[in-house]
# Entry
Amino acid sequence: MSNAAVQHLMRGQSADGGWGAYAGTVSRTESTALATLALWANAASGEAGPLDAGRAWLETRQLASGAWPLGDDLAEPSWSTSLATLALSHFAPESERIASAARWLLGQKGRGTPWWGKIYFWFFPDRRAVELDPDLIGWPWMPDTFSWVEPTSYAVMALTRLGGAVDRGRVDGRLEEADRLLLDRACEGGGWNYGNTRVLGEELWPYPDTTALALLALAHRPEAAEVAEGLAALGRMLEENDSVLSLGLGGLAYRAHGVDATAVRERLALKLGAWEGGETRALAWAALALAPSEDPLGVRRA
Amino acid sequence: MPDRREFLRVAAGAAAGAALACGREAPEPWSAAAVRKPERSSVAIVPAPTYDEAGLLEAVRSGLALFDELDVRGRRVVLKPNLVEFDPAAVINTHPALIAATVEAFRLGGAREVVVAEGPGHRRDNEYLLAASGLAAQLRDTGARYVDLNHDAVRRVELASRFTELGGLYLPETVLDADLLVSMPKLKTHHWAGVTLSMKNLFGIVPGAVYGWPKNVLHWAGLGGSIIDINAALDVPRFNIVDGVLGMEGNGPIQGEAKQVGVLVLGADPVAVDATGARLMNIDPWKVDYLAAVDPFLGNVAEERIEQRGEAMSRFQADFAVIENFAGIKATAPITGG
# Structure
């Protein structure tokens, strides 16, 4: 029997085969990719029809550049390409579709400090408002903007799954720098927020969802102190935060790092039993956390 | 990063430089579509000493009653509060009780529908943010529909001013199609912009799904310039209600300290409302770059062009602390408005 999140997801699927950010809203790539991935990870439950429709929605929206748009209401390439790639890589990992998506992703780079900024901060180092290394390059939300934790984590998960159809050396180089970026952006007491540790000298606090995403992207780095601190911070945050999104992503991150997620999954099941509507992506992450596989995203590295 | 003043000046300066090089007068960095400055504006200050729900409803209703021209009968009103983060120890957000009171006040005024809409700029976890802030409970009690502007359907809007190089923005249809958009900011100082009020609050309408979290594109484009360009682009009937019951001073908009003021500030002209809000905080609005820059076309900053309704400002004026970078925006002489 499929988990409750899958049932809610299937009820929220749009007639066009996609999913909106909320049930009944315009279909978007992020929610469709995550819902499709969630159905795939729970495929033993026999949801072939909705799964096929979700996959078809994604396949027909890929742009000639290899990227995916945000949704049908916005045609420009978007950060959600990572999630579409991650989802479709489970069906045809060696396909040209995935290779072209990967090439687009590899072409996306966060923006570092501009030359005039480097000169300015060379003269006035004390005026730097944030305490992070701005020249570590990951992935931005929009082309040619700053690198942040969430889009970087998505891109890492997508590129981790690529086979031999792309330049492996280039992929490994980007993944290695993304590791350093994520470790650099960890909050002082552990965990991650959107990607800033301090602003104007004030310490910022972590969030459970972004902490879990960073931990998923760093699943191959169990030895890193930031990972251990992040797992501890996630545990503290989940004591006070019982949103479906936080529990779902938190449960997934625990499983990726071999931490017992039984209690989190039980709380999640309870929450889903009382579900009154909300974000599709929260449901999808919950469905993935409750999936039978130990690595439902398929992003563990050897 | 030197971003506080640059784009206001770069945009105007670049246009002026290019024009001078061509031997003609510099064009203004806004088009006719952005010109909405009235001859005079009205701003009301209404006492609201606490977040007691009955008292707030009365305060909002009495404030709205000072604006005969505001007729919401049969209209769809979109309330845009400031809900950006949550910290149990801080007063970051527009208080949910004020949002609920405003929903009720507009319903009693005959509005066809009152929607609450926000696109939080830091946290993506809406379920958590709504529950922790107390807004979820108020939405349940009032039955008001909530729209997550970060994920709303969008349309591209060409900007009517050029204080940034953004050119256009994708904006949510819930906002663009509103019969009346009500900006409901918190009375706060801001560590990048000086003050955050009705105008800055509209950063929350910029959809995160398109521009990300935080909405850093706007910071890179120039914070002050982005505030201006977003406000100048919105060809939607506007009203503004500032939560000045408890404001935030110092390192706002997230990590500042609570400051009791005990008022609501209301008005249709966001520039005049924000200028009045700044004066309430003992901040000179002419020294807040983005406010001074919009006075020629978008709304009124000058006290003599703002008709004060309700209570006298002097009764509530509070000396808000600002961070060192913004020490220069404090009023150097007593502000006597109202």
Observations:
- The first strand of chain A starts at residue 69 and ends at 71.
- Chain A has a mean pLDDT of 92.
- The CA atoms of residues 198 and 206 of chain A lie 11 Å apart.
